[in-house]
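Lecture 7, part 2: worked example. A protein chain together with S-adenosylmethionine.
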Amino acid sequence: MITREETWDGFWAQLLRIDMFAEQWEAYRKVADSRAEWLEKSFGLDRERPVLSLACGEGGIELALARRGYNVIGIDRSQVLVSFARDRAIEENLNATFVHADLTENSQLPGNNGTVICFDTLGLLHDDDEYRLVQRAAGALHREGILLIDNPLRDDLSTVRRWQRIREGYFLMEAWLDKASGIQIQNPIFISPEGEEVLLRDPYDRKRESHTGVHRYVYTPTELVNLLKSTGLPAREFKHQRGGFYMVAGSRRLEE
Ligand SMILES: C[S@@+](CC[C@H](N)C(=O)[O-])C[C@H]1O[C@@H](n2cnc3c(N)ncnc32)[C@H](O)[C@@H]1O
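Predicted complex, written out as structure tokens:
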């Protein structure tokens, strides 16, 4: 069998974040709208100031917040996903801007945000990049703003082996948690209709030795709370609306 390797943005983002949801956008949108409503109610988001989303992907939550009247800025290093989110924002005439940028670079983030979110992403990058990103995220907040970061719960990450038909081919996913290191390994494989095997190779963590698949460190809630506290913000864990996930919030508002 011929094997080919593709990057996240070059191939996989389109397959896993866009094609995978084709014909399910209505359901996808309902879930995003309900999550946005939950975020608003649970964390008292500031309507007067922007929401900045770091690693926004295809913009599900971001567009849902914009539908609720927020001014949203999303940043992601996948051009495919940023273009997709931008097109949806234009179609719906929403106050949402999507920027293509690599968050491991030290470019300045737009400041004075009422809310900064970073969902389902920490653990993918190198520790140093994540530390700096969280510091920059806290620095991009208005004084009374809130930083929200969510992540999967280790105990809910079961071993996965599944396949499905997609784009006339087959998508296979193998994922498991290495309990000793707290690293989740995901090995996506696409088998094209011609029988070619496509693997993912992408330098999410620029300092980790090159490998195929995704190796993601799964923070415990205490570790993530401490990471947020390292910015000087009071922080704590909250129960998530999304099963298998927890939320950590950092804000001076939590002081009272
Ligand atoms: C698991 S997805 C999460 C997307 C979205 N936040 C969500 O909750 O659905 C991780 C996202 O991180 C983005 N990403 C990974 N490394 C990045 C980097 N260095 N700079 C910006 N975005 C990055 C990927 O393109 C991808 O969209």
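The pocket of S-adenosylmethionine is lined by residues 8, 55-57, 76-78, 81, 102-104, 119-121, 124-125, 204 (CB under 6 Å). The CA atoms of residues 34 and 64 lie 8 Å apart. Keep this in mind for problem set question 3.
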